From TrEMBL:
The keyword Translocase does not apply. It comes from Lentinula boryana. This is Kinetochore protein Sos7 coiled-coil domain-containing protein. Keywords: Coiled coil. The lineage of its organism: Eukaryota, Fungi, Dikarya, Basidiomycota, Agaricomycotina. Residues 67-142 form the Kinetochore protein Sos7 coiled-coil domain. The keyword Coiled coil applies.
């Protein structure tokens, strides 16, 4: 809207300038100067000059003044020579009478002509100064009008480009277009979504912080366990060195190893893993009555620093309830009986 208002103002200014050209004094002066002609009696040969540029006019006037001064000097010289010759060749008996009054009169006329010439030169100098001042203002006004016209043209081109861009946008995005209410609603949804994402990011950062703290604590615990392991390995090496010294323990060790292997194969025990100081996980591979095998995991949790069983958890047997077996054997702290009952019920399960 602002560009259209500026364009309309520029066009109105240009129309006003065009309509008032005839009434401007500077335009009338230019027309009068263009139509002015020098009298043929003053100058014998008058050439047409370019009156559009004041600098060219000033140069032409200066050249004409120089020419006229030279012409005047030549005229005075020729006139003096002519009078001198006439005085020489004229008869002595009838010489031209030149009295003192004639010389004074000529001198007076000469002074008057000089004063007139001086006044004419001052007027000419004033006119030249006014012409220079007016010409500079005309040049400034011309440049200003030219800039305003160029700016108006530029604004008109920008308005046309904006209209074309708006037309392309309307063709690219036909109805129904996004309204202000729809945009506000979408903005509110995006703000809510960003808030939810921010909360989620904060939760994730807190979780990462907690995980880092836990990892740091576990790293310290791992370093402590490494130290304990090194000490245990040293003790084991010392024990092995003692066993090597006493060969009587070798048959006993072989018998115990074989017994453990037979027991594990009979019970189907595949793996034993200590999860923590009071948690033990047993992995069994049990064969049911149909001859198919199933892997189950039994987790035993003890009371810390004791051999009392606190709870047990069976995994890998979906659909079978072992809660009654576990509760019955927890009261008596019968771990073997509980494991046997769980394995027996798993073998009977189809």
């Amino acid at each position: 809207m602002d560009q259209e208002k500026r364009l309309i103002a520029a066009q109105s200014l240009q129309a006003l300038f065009d309509s008032t050209n005839a009434s401007l004094a500077i335009i009338r002066n230019v027309a009068e100067f263009s139509t002015h002609k020098v009298d043929e009696g003053d100058v014998s040969d008058v050439e047409d000059i370019d009156t559009r540029d004041p600098a060219i006019v000033a140069i032409d006037v200066a050249s004409q003044l120089s020419y006229l001064r030279k012409l005047k000097q030549q005229y005075l010289e020729q006139n003096a020579k002519d009078k001198y010759v006439k005085l020489i060749v004229t008869d002595i008996d009838d010489p031209p009478t030149v009295t003192d009054s004639d010389n004074k009169q000529l001198e007076k006329q000469n002074i008057e002509q000089k004063e007139k010439l001086k006044v004419a030169k001052e007027k000419l100098s004033m006119m030249e100064g006014d012409l220079r001042t007016v010409s500079s203002k005309v040049e400034e006004d011309y440049v200003r009008v030219k800039q305003a016209t160029a700016r108006a043209t530029d604004l008109a081109q920008k308005i046309i480009d904006a209209r074309l861009a708006l037309s392309r946008l309307r063709q690219t995005h036909p109805h129904p277009r996004v309204t202000v209410q729809t945009a506000d609603k979408k903005l509110e949804d995006q703000v809510m979504e960003m808030q939810a994402l921010t909360d989620e990011m904060q939760a994730v950062n807190q979780k990462v912080h907690d995980t880092k703290a836990k990892l740091k604590a576990e790293s310290l615990e791992a370093e402590s366990l490494k130290t304990q392991r090194n000490e245990v390995e040293k003790n084991v090496k010392k024990s092995e060195s003692g066993i090597n010294d006493d060969r009587r323990f070798v048959p006993l060790y072989d018998w115990l190893t074989g017994s453990l292997w037979i027991h594990r194969s009979m019970q189907g025990l595949e793996d034993i893993k200590a999860i923590s100081e009071n948690e033990l996980r047993l992995q069994y591979r049990v064969e049911n009555k149909h001859g198919s095998f199933r892997s189950i995991s039994i987790t035993l949790i003890f009371v810390p620093n004791s051999r009392l069983l606190a709870s047990a958890n069976v995994q890998g047997t979906e659909g079978v309830d072992f809660s009654d077996v576990i509760e019955a054997h927890l009261q008596m702290n019968n771990i073997r009986g509980m494991l046997a009952a769980i394995l027996a019920r798993t073998r009977e399960w189809e």
